[in-house]
């Protein structure tokens, strides 16, 4: 059995109706995994959106996913950020924690260590904003579990290649 | 040329005319009434009125596959569009260029569950190469152009344009006589293959000791030039060639280098050559599961070259050694050039030994069957049909099942675009409407739908269409009163429990033909077959021929599902010895 690899793929698409459905339908229809998917317009003038999809599969499946994405008509370009040299990957999360007394103090202390910011606060709760690698977010969220974790909202990963060259 | 203001409907028609379309297949309804009114007022587009929208798409497929041109369909919203879905999926699987125009409720009603509303772009997204919903008439001309380009270029396929009724009525400027676009801002298929790869492939081909060409529908899709170049290259090398179901006709069937079809019901010599070859030259085929059989034991000792215009076909099912993305004709032309340039000295001794081995396999005569004096064997009926049509300008379509495989085995195609069959999707009911589409494109040709009585009934309503347009289509029914392929699998895998595979209450096909004013003939004895075929061919109107064949005949050779190529069943006597594995049972 070939090893399962995790890949982050950036896809530049025309920002037209149904384009996200095409991408998602391709993954569900062919049984590929989506670990996370983000999308937003990045070039309003030429109406181009960037989709960042984190997926996993054997090298043969990853190659298929890229070929299948590339043949969608509204796709301009795809880039495998995992294969194509060094890249940076970031995710943002909003984490709601409820508690009082020592737990509340401890939550603040840990947030400080992780450079999370409190963006909402009541007498017995915080909403923290944290960004970083998905692994860093996992670690922060895990620590919050025993401190009154209520709710998590995560964006999914966005990524970009290191260095001066564009996609 | 100056732009004129035209209604959406007129833009649709004018775009088709400007792109050289002369025939469309369709069925009217509320949402497309503006287009039908525009059709009424012009005489450049011929409209063929079908009897169900499913038939329209298969007609367009037959038209497209037999001409290399675009097939065009026009249907209404809601049920018109949903009925077209099977045909669209069929065209996607077999890479047939089809443009399907669907009506839609007016833009202000979209999403309101309006009468005859369906989310057509949503439904057809996975079964088209691309689709469009036009919300502004000012975009329509551009979308029409783009859609036709996308359908025809690269790996061809079906494209849907969903047309809300208000868009058809509103007006926009349109440049009459506009040249079709030749490129697209994002969709740019790679036509020319990589030179280094082509050289690598040719060197591998030159050094082969047990080579085999394995070619498919991609060669047919690259145009008559593709088949010509393939034939030239194969003859230059002197190597054997096998073709897939979709590729039949890409290389002359009567040439000695052709080993017959490959795959589940392919010939013994083809499949064993696939298994034992050392260099496999795949041009325009996609390692379909019906061809590869058990993937883990597929052609274990070969280096594989794969030429395909669609990068996603490469390394999908089978890992290959030399991938070449490009159009078959273009890559073959390059290969021939490099071959002539390097003037290879091939290993004649090894190649002769390989041919000796192949001739031994050939001597098994895997398509032999037991002739009968009293019962018509389906193989015999087709051998006679082949013999009596070979000097005519003949086009063959098929439905899906045993008769389809027998047709692929016994009919001989020496040219591309003469063989229309539903390969990928396996759509029963394909062949009859496809034959109507072929006949529309080739009014003087002999067009025969080789059918089973079960498949024919799936689009039997199109008899009325054949009559209306005086199309002399022939339906050649191999009638065994069973869904033969289903029955065959039940016999081999399910202890002969023939669950729901027998068709009761069949019509009298001769009287049925007569009720439409068509001709009907029947043969029940082998001695009648020739006469009936001759009567059919002499008849210049729509004709149904009902051949009562051996009800128990099975289609051989056969690779049972889950088995490798070298474990073929050659005939009924083979069956008992080799039970199908548990893994094979779950495969279709």
Question: What's the CATH class of the largest domain in chain A, please?
Answer: Alpha Beta
CATH superfamily annotation of the largest domain in chain B:
Thiamin diphosphate (ThDP)-binding fold, Pyr/PP domains
Q: How would you describe the oligomerization state of the chains in this entry?
A: heterodimer
Radius of gyration of chain A: 19 Å
Shape by Cα distribution of chain A: elongated
- Give me the CATH architecture of the largest domain in chain B, please: 3-Layer(aba) Sandwich
| CATH topology category name of the largest domain in chain A | Alpha-Beta Plaits
- End-to-end separation of chain A: 32 Å
Strand order of the largest sheet of chain B: 3-2-4-5-7-6
- How many discrete domains of chain A? 2
The SSE order of chain A reads EHEEHEEHEEHEE
CATH class of the largest domain in chain B: Alpha Beta
Structural class of chain A: alpha+beta
Largest sheet: number of strands, sense, barrel closure of chain B: 6 strands, parallel
Helix content of chain A: 25-40%
**Individual helix count of chain A:** 4
List the total number of helices of chain B: 24
Mean pLDDT rating of chain A:
96
Distance N to C terminus of chain B: 56 Å
Number of domains of chain B: 3
Can you put this structure into words, describing what you see?
The complex is a heterodimer of chains A (167) and B (588). Chain A is an alpha+beta fold. Chain A folds into 2 domains: 5-80, Alpha-Beta Plaits; 88-159, Alpha-Beta Plaits (2-Layer Sandwich), CATH 3.30.70. Chain A contains 4 helices and 9 strands. In chain A, strands 5, 6, 7, 8 and 9 form a 5-stranded antiparallel β-sheet that branches. A 4-stranded antiparallel β-sheet of chain A has the order 2-3-1-4. The radius of gyration of chain A is 19 Å and the shape is elongated. In chain A, 26% of the residues are buried. Chain B is an alpha/beta fold. Chain B folds into 3 domains: 3-175, Thiamin diphosphate (ThDP)-binding fold, Pyr/PP domains (Rossmann fold, 3-Layer(aba) Sandwich), CATH 3.40.50.970; 195-363, Rossmann fold; 378-548, Thiamin diphosphate (ThDP)-binding fold, Pyr/PP domains (Rossmann fold, 3-Layer(aba) Sandwich). Helix content of chain B is 39%, strand content 17%. Chain B is built from 24 helices and 20 strands. Chain B has a 6-stranded parallel β-sheet with strand order 3-2-4-5-7-6, with helices on both faces. In chain B, strands 11-10-9-12-13-14 form a 6-stranded parallel β-sheet, with helices on both faces. Chain B has a 6-stranded parallel β-sheet with strand order 16-15-17-18-20-19, with helices on both faces. In chain B, α3 packs across α18, α9 packs across α14 and α11 packs parallel to α14. Chain B is globular, with a radius of gyration of 24 Å. Chain B starts with a strand and ends with a helix. The interface between A and B is medium-sized, with 18 and 19 residues.
């Amino acid at each position: 059995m070939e090893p399962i690899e995790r890949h982050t793929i950036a896809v530049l698409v025309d920002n037209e109706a149904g384009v996200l459905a095409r991408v998602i339908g391709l993954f569900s229809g062919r049984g590929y995994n989506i670990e996370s998917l983000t999308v937003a317009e990045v070039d309003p003038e030429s109406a181009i959106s960037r989709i960042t999809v984190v997926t996993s599969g054997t090298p043969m499946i990853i190659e298929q996913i890229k070929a299948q994405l590339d043949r969608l008509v509204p796709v301009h370009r795809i880039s495998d950020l995992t294969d194509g040299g060094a890249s940076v990957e970031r995710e943002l999360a909003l984490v709601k924690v409820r508690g009082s007394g020592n737990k509340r103090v401890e939550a603040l202390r840990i947030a400080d260590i992780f450079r999370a910011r409190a963006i909402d606060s009541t007498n017995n709760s915080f909403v923290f904003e944290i960004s970083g690698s998905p692994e860093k977010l996992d670690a922060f969220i895990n620590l919050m579990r025993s401190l009154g974790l209520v709710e998590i909202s995560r964006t999914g990963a966005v990524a970009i290649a290191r260095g001066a060259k564009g996609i | 040329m100056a732009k004129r203001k035209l209604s959406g409907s007129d833009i649709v028609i004018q775009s088709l005319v400007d792109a050289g379309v002369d025939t469309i297949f369709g069925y009217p309804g509320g949402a497309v009434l503006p287009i039908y009114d525009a059709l009424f007022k012009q005489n450049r587009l011929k409209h063929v009125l079908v009897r169900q929208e499913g038939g329209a798409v298969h007609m367009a497929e037959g038209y497209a596959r037999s001409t290399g041109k675009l097939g065009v369909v026009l249907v209404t919203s809601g049920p018109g569009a949903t009925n077209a879905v099977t045909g669209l999926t069929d065209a996607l699987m077999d890479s047939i260029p089809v443009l399907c125009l669907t009506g839609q409720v007016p833009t202000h009603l979209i999403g309101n569950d309006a009468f005859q509303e369906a989310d057509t772009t949503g439904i057809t997204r996975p079964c088209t190469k691309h689709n469009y919903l036009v919300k502004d008439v000012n975009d329509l001309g551009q979308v029409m152009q783009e859609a036709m380009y996308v359908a025809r270029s690269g790996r061809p396929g079906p494209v849907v344009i969903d047309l809300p009724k208000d868009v058809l009525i509103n007006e926009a400027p349109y440049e009459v006589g506009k040249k079709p676009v030749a490129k697209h801002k994002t969709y740019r298929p790679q036509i020319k293959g990589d030179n280094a790869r082509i050289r690598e492939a040719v060197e591998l081909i030159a050094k082969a000791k047990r080579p085999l060409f394995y070619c498919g529908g991609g060669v047919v899709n690259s145009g008559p030039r593709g088949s010509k170049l393939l034939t030239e290259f194969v003859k230059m090398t002197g190597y054997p060639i096998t073709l897939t179901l979709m590729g039949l006709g890409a290389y002359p069937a009567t040439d000695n280098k052709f080993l017959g079809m490959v795959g589940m019901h392919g010939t013994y010599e083809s499949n064993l050559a696939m298994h034992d070859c050392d260099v496999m030259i795949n041009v325009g085929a996609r390692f379909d599961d019906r061809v590869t059989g058990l993937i883990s034991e597929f052609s274990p000792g070969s280096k594989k070259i794969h030429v395909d215009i669609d990068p996603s076909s490469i390394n999908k099912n089978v890992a290959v050694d030399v991938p070449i993305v490009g159009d078959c004709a273009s890559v073959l032309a390059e290969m021939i050039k490099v071959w002539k340039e390097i003037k290879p000295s091939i290993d004649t001794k090894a190649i002769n030994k390989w041919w000796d081995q192949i001739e031994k396999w050939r001597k098994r005569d895997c398509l032999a069957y037991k002739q009968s004096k009293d019962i018509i064997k389906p193989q015999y009926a087709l051998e006679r049909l082949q013999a009596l049509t070979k000097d005519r300008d003949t086009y063959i379509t098929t439905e899906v099942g045993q008769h389809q495989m027998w047709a692929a085995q016994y009919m001989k195609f020496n040219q591309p675009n003469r063989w229309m069959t539903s390969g990928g999707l396996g759509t029963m009911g394909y062949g009859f409407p496809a034959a109507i589409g072929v006949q529309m494109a080739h009014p003087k040709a002999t067009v025969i739908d080789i059918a089973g009585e079960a498949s024919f009934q799936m689009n039997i309503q199109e008899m009325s269409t054949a009559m209306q347009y005086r199309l002399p289509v022939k339906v050649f029914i191999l009638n065994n009163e069973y869904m033969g392929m289903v029955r065959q699998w039940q016999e081999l895998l399910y202890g002969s429990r023939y669950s729901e595979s027998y068709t009761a209450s069949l019509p009298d096909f001769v009287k049925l033909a007569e009720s439409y004013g068509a001709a009907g003939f029947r043969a029940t004895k082998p001695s009648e077959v020739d006469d009936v075929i001759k009567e059919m061919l002499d008849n210049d109107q729509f004709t149904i021929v009902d051949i009562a064949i051996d009800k128990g005949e099975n289609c051989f050779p056969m690779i049972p599902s889950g088995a490798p190529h070298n474990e073929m069943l050659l005939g009924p006597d083979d069956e008992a010895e080799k039970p199908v594995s548990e893994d094979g049972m779950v495969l279709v």
